[in-house]
Each structure stands twice: as structure tokens, then as C-alpha cells.
């Protein structure tokens, strides 16, 4: 497992182009299974979750050719409807393939999806909606861990989600494409990544409207062709780097990002005294001359609320720039694991099930900490960059699931970070032994 070695105390300043969004690319790649003909995706993030999705698409018989951030996908030769279990476990978004496989070939065999260990993450809302569309869903006889989903003919219907689940909204949008008649999904998630999925589906000849409003209407029975599509910018990456730069007293200019997608974070930073300038397709943020002071309570909520995917990074930032702050997590039940690692670095944090109370103004000290999930890992890197001294953040594999060229982007802004994989470390130690 790789380790980031960080020397803290440097200001991070500079400009960056936000990469394509992980949480937009993954559902769109799953949706490409429904199309026949060539898709060309631009700004597809170079992250391990996309690598996993490419492996799954190839295992289903799709042709995938990758050239950096450009991806060509042709699903005409799809020959499989069963997702290999070990691939299913790789990440949560493999569950979206259920909806697209149903739409394409009328059946799917999936197992319980993997993903970051930030909560139980059931798929009951997905299953309930697919059954309402007419899918027959049962445990497989040969492997109780497998779920066999068959859909003779899906029929459009009225759905109302018990909770605005992002994944369930996307999965049901995809399944409804092949249903006879119209499907309406009420209480759907409203994230920008869902609007992006609608745009992709319509470019492929689909007929979806209402994404972003909470009520999505899908006219079924359409055949989808391939198209060229650019993945929208990653608002979570942009927010992560904004907190990283301002947390170290720097300034950052982020190109290609829509400020509206970061509204709750921008409001929070402005209230704390940061200078933020919004342009049409970019955001400039500066720590400014006075010290940043943020107090009060920040609660995560479904979009357009404060994004749960920025909660760990904000908490790390507040250990230094908060006064007395409460951060409440309302989406996932186990998303504070990183906080214990921050305490090891000198943070004054009280942890309870649903919230952390941060007694800010801390001086953080470098330490040896472990990333346990994607966003918690990013939070530890932010803390290491703000801390005095050296920090080692272990298990970089979690961070690489969702951030492309993470260390390189930090170095480009003046941060001192390098990665060494333990295998490399071991071989260096062996060489040293041989020469002594
Ligand atoms: C998506 O996960 C994102 N992942 C997550 O990003 C993000 O945190 C989350 O949406 C919320 O915005 C991708 O898009 C690939 P949910 P998803 O279904 O779809 C419960 C990151 O760091 N729930 O909206 O899994 C669930 O347990 C990742 O980039 C059910 O109970 O999120 C959770 O508590 C992490 N039953 C809540 O709803 C269901 O059937 C939100 O889950 C589905 C969800």
C-alpha cells in the first residue's frame, strides 16, 4: 500500500483545471452499456474507480479504448449480463449496471456492491424501484450473495423514492429507458451529476427531462446510439483543493468549475472571511490577509445542501480555522473515521455518532496516519499540509479511487508531497542491506 510523505507549513497557491467528475463519469459509463455504436468521452478522470468500471465493461463484452482522459466505448458487442463478483466489490457504482443491463438485455446478475466503508449502504431503494418497474428480483440459487434481476418487459410507472438516493435515481433512470411507456421518479436526487446523466442519455437519443428538479420523467422504449460527451468538472475535487489552498493560507484559481455547484462551501468560507470571486466558469479563492474564523454548525444534506463528500475535508480545515464548530453528518452513518487520525495530529475534536465538535485554533503536528476511505484520506492530506513537521498518510489507494494525479497537483501549487510505495521502500532497504 502506498504512502504520501508530506512536509507541512507551505502555502499552496496557483491555478488548476478541475478534472472530470468521478460521480458523473461512473453512471455515464454504466449508461453506455445501453447504447450501440461508438461513444467518445472527454475529460474522463484517470482514477482507479474508472479503471474498475472499464474492467467491468470489458468483462461484459464492450470494447473500451483509453487515451489519457479520452475514452472510447462501444457496447455493440455486449455478450454478458453477469458482473463478476470481485469486480462488483470494487466499487459502489457497479450497482448502476443493473439498470443499464436490464435496459439493454432484460436481465442482470449482480452481487452486493462494494465502495468506501462509510456506512451500511443498502440497495433497498434500488430494488424497490426496479420491482415497481416490473423486474423479477431474487437471490440466485447457486450463490446466495448474487441477486438475479430479470425483466421480461419493464413497464413505465410512477415512482416516489423513500429517500433522494443518488445511485437509486440513476439506476432507475437507466432501467426506465427500456420500459414501455413513461416513468416518473418523484423525490429523486438533484445532484449536478444527475443532470449530466440526463444530458448524456438525451444526446444518445433518449427522452429524459426534469433532472435537478426532484421530479424526473423518462419516456421509455427508445433505442440509444453512441455519442461524444464531455464529463462535467468535479465539484468535490474543486472543493477539496479550495480547502487545501485556503487551509495553508494560499490562494487558488480553479478553471472549468461552476461556482453554483459549490454554493454551500463558498458561503461557509465567505462567512469565515475568505475572499471568493466567481466567474462564469471558474472560481478564485484567497485566504486574504486576516485570519479565517468559521464558527457555528455545518450539516450535510442532499444537493443543494452541503455535500457529504466535502465533510471530512471541511472538518480538517476547521481544526485550524474554526472557532467552535459542529459538523453534522446526515447522509452516511460511519463517515467520521478519519477524525481519530486528526486527533493523533493534535486536533481538538469531540466525536459522536452523527457529529463532531471542533474546538478550532489548533496547531496540528505532523504524524503517521492511515487513510480508511477516499474523502477521509483527502482530509488527512489537507491536515498534513497545514501541520508543522512531517506527516505520512498511508493507504493512498483509497485516495486514488477519486483523485487523479493528486500529489502532482499539490506539488504544482507549492506543496511538498511525494509518494512512495512500500514495495519501492522495501527494495531500497534491501539494496541498502546488500551494500553494507
Ligand atoms: C453517491 O453514492 C456518490 N457515489 C457518493 O460519493 C455520495 O457521497 C453519495 O451519492 C451522496 O451524495 C457515486 O456517485 C459513485 P446514496 P450513493 O444512494 O449513490 C442510503 C464519494 O466519496 N441508501 O445517495 O451510494 C445510503 O445508505 C462517494 O465520491 C439506502 O438506505 O449514495 C446513504 O446513507 C461516497 N438505500 C444514503 O442513502 C438505498 O437503496 C445516501 O446514499 C440507497 C441509499
Unreliable sequence segments: none
> What's the total count of β strands?
25
Ligand inventory reads: ligand EPZ
Main sheet, how many strands, which sense, barrel?
4 strands, mixed
Count of DSSP H/I helices: 15
Estimate what percentage of residues fall within beta strands.
25-35%
Instruction: Identify the overall geometry.
Output: globular
What's the pLDDT, averaged over the residues? 92
Evaluate the radius of gyration: 22 Å
Termini separation: 27 Å
Helix fraction by DSSP (H/I, runs of at least 4): 25-40%
Strand order of the largest sheet: 23-24-1-25
* Assembly classification: single chain
* Helix-and-strand structural type: alpha/beta
Q: Describe it for me?
A:
The chain is of the alpha/beta class and 436 residues long. Helix content is 34%, strand content 25%. It contains 15 helices and 25 strands. It has helices spanning 22-31, 48-59, 85-88, 96-105, 124-132, 166-176, 192-203, 235-247, 263-271, 311-321, 337-344, 374-386, 396-399, 406-412, 422-435; strands at residues 2-7, 14-17, 35-36, 38-42, 63-67, 70-74, 107-111, 136-139, 146-150, 158-160, 182-186, 208-209, 215-219, 224-225, 228-230, 251-255, 275-279, 282-286, 294-299, 322-328, 349-351, 355-359, 368-370, 390-394, 416-421. The strands form seven sheets. Strands 23-24-1-25 form a four-stranded mixed β-sheet. A four-stranded mixed β-sheet has the order 2-16-18-17, with helices on one face. Helix 6 (166-176) links the parallel strand 10 and strand 11. Helix 8 packs parallel to helix 10 (311-321). The radius of gyration is 22 Å and the shape is globular. The mean pLDDT is 92. Bound molecules: ligand EPZ. Ligand EPZ is lined by residues 22-23, 26, 92-93, 116, 119-126, 163, 165-168, 189, 308-309, 331-332, 374-375, 402.
